[in-house]
Amino acid sequence: MAAPALPAVGERMERVVLVTGASSGVGLALCRRLLEEDRRIHLCVACRNAQRSEATRESILAAHPTARVSTVEVDLASLASVLRAARDLRRRLQRLDFVYLNAGILPNTHMDFKALWQGLLTGKALHMLTTAEGIMTQTDRLNGDGLQEVFATNLFGHFILVRQLESLLCGNERPSQLIWTSSSSARESAFSLSDYQHAKGQESYSSSKYATDLTSVVLNKKLNKQGLYSSVVCPGLVMSNLTYRILPVFVWKLLMPIMWLIRFFAKTYTLTPYNGAEAHVWLFKQKPESLDALVKYHSCTSGLGKNYVEPRKIYVDEETAEKFYEKLLELEKQALERYDDLLDN
């Protein structure tokens, strides 16, 4: 297939966009929606293996045959894979305008139906159903690097990726933007500085998403002057591979009429990946320097199906954010010493 024509003199330079977790769910819907917004972007899809990457690329090109779509293989749970991907991207690209840090896992999830029933009796069920507080737990495990798998995949792998790509993100002609997929289940009560990988608890997903919020806040303090801005978004409750692992598919299908009804009361029940990507796409159209670093942008869908974005203040202790950032730097130092052969020296 012939490469797309280069922009004419005076035409706006193409924007380079990297999306992790692009093979399905919100990530894939986001890729398609970004190309609907701007067909001139250079879209780089990051998937766990080469087969997924190429299948994703072909799927996107089927709908947008003239789009410029490249791939990179990265398993966010593997530090070696992250470092290889970053090295590959540094060699292939001159800059990055947007990085959507979207990949994530929600493994070995257990639902506490007794707690949900108690919530129905006490009037707390709607809060539980929109935040998963008190009704959802996970059993985590160590990955090949000796890190807790959820922490490594949802946060630390992305953190290392950003750090390794700073040369492409900072000091460009126009500001660059990091957009992290967080969650409404991000809760301070699930996070502890003394156990920031959440090895001892059963809410590893919520902990990793609160850690994401902390990281975004502190990165703005560190990197705004270099032209890099960071935001967090919440896609809402989306039916995707993550949610289908919580309950069998047939159960979700039985629950779907109830979930459509709940949407009239809980606007974050976006349900489809297309709707869940609303906040991600909205941020693509904003000036990053005009955004509030202490706001999470929520994808919302009304009971009648209208999509919109709702900014909500995030409450993080900035001193905790700084201390957590220092711990991430310490962990990064250990990782880079171990994988020195994958660095450009």
UniProtKB/TrEMBL annotation:
Catalysed reactions, semicolon-separated: 5alpha-androstane-3beta,17beta-diol + NADP(+) = 17beta-hydroxy-5alpha-androstan-3-one + NADPH + H(+); zymosterone + NADPH + H(+) = zymosterol + NADP(+); 4alpha-methyl-5alpha-cholest-7-en-3beta-ol + NADP(+) = 4alpha-methyl-5alpha-cholest-7-en-3-one + NADPH + H(+); 3-dehydro-4alpha-methylzymosterol + NADPH + H(+) = 4alpha-methylzymosterol + NADP(+)
Cellular compartment(s): Endoplasmic reticulum membrane
Main location: endoplasmic reticulum
EC class of the enzyme, as a word: oxidoreductase
EC code(s) of this entry: 1.1.1.210, 1.1.1.270, 1.1.1.62
UniProt superkingdom: Eukaryota
InterPro entries (alphabetical): 3KSR/17beta-HSD, NAD(P)-bd_dom_sf, SDR_fam
Name recorded for this polypeptide: 3-keto-steroid reductase/17-beta-hydroxysteroid dehydrogenase 7
Coiled coil: none
Keyword NADP: yes
GO MF annotation, one: estradiol 17-beta-dehydrogenase [NAD(P)+] activity
Membrane topology term: Single-pass membrane protein
Oligomer and partners: Binds to the short form of prolactin receptor.
Family matches, as PANTHER family: 3-KETO-STEROID REDUCTASE, 3-KETO-STEROID REDUCTASE_17-BETA-HYDROXYSTEROID DEHYDROGENASE 7
Signal peptide interval: none
Record flagged with keyword ATP-binding: no
Family: Belongs to the short-chain dehydrogenases/reductases (SDR) family. ERG27 subfamily.
Any one GO biological process: estrogen biosynthetic process
Pathway as given in its UniProt record: Steroid biosynthesis; zymosterol biosynthesis; zymosterol from lanosterol: step 5/6; Steroid biosynthesis; estrogen biosynthesis
A GO CC term assigned to this protein in UniProt: endoplasmic reticulum membrane
Keywords recorded for this protein, A-Z: Endoplasmic reticulum, Glycoprotein, Lipid biosynthesis, Lipid metabolism, Membrane, NAD, NADP, Oxidoreductase, Steroid biosynthesis, Transmembrane, Transmembrane helix
Organism, as annotated: Dromaius novaehollandiae (Emu)
